[in-house]
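mind reviewing both lines:
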Amino acid sequence: MFVEAAAAFLMLLGAPDSGQRALAAACAEKDGWSDPAPPARIHGQTWYVGTCGITVLLIATPSGHVLIDGATEKAAPYVLANIRKLGFDPRDVKLILSTHEHDDHVAGLAALKAATGARVLARAAARRALESGRVDADDPQAAIASRFPGVKVDRIVADGEVVRLGKHGFTAIATPGHTSGGTSWSWRSCEKRECLRIVFADSLNAVSADDYRFSANPKRAAMFRGSFVKVAALDCGLLLTGHPGGSDMFERFAGKQKVADRGACEAYAAGAAKRLDARLAKETGR
């Protein structure tokens, strides 16, 4: 009880606990998408079960568990092993939520769905790519994206929809740009009597194949702009991202920065907007 109370107090102060420090130390020299990482509690019943390079989250509830993303096909056994290391049964995972339809985040979904029996949820714009295992032709990375095992989408979720599992709700936030189906997720997490809102923000990075020009695709740039505004406005008690480096997660877990920062989502969106502006300026020579 004392350890749990101390962990909650440290989170309030923005400091990491011992499990987060161990995760950061294990991945200090690694960032590969399939590099195994130890599991760690992030806050309340939200747990890190991914790799050193890709975030996969497990949210444990009395009504069953929720998994967000699946990392690479190679990493799927590591994710399952991490779930078991935490004392959870993968077969108690009831829902698998997806952020965006690129192989580094979803290639493991088919294996995880088969192992857990969970239902896969995603937005309509991601369905074709997830089920076919091939990104859409208009994806900025289409020319360089790898194929991945397709996975059946069992339920389509809408922007702003709250997906419920028992008394727990997970809000889908459409944040397209990086892909058309890009989705961020938000939920309430509590430790003892202290609660905050966790945001698992999808990638806002305007990366592409070498010959793709965002300046020639204004609709794609507009998608990004809309997503920047949405993410910046979120209730952001604790920010997590699909690539740990995208929000300095491991630096925060190592104690080099505050773990929880209410301004993190706004800063994350502002950084992405600055990078898009720089990319457009480079393309147009301005």
In short: The radius of gyration is 18 Å. The chain has nine helices and twelve strands.
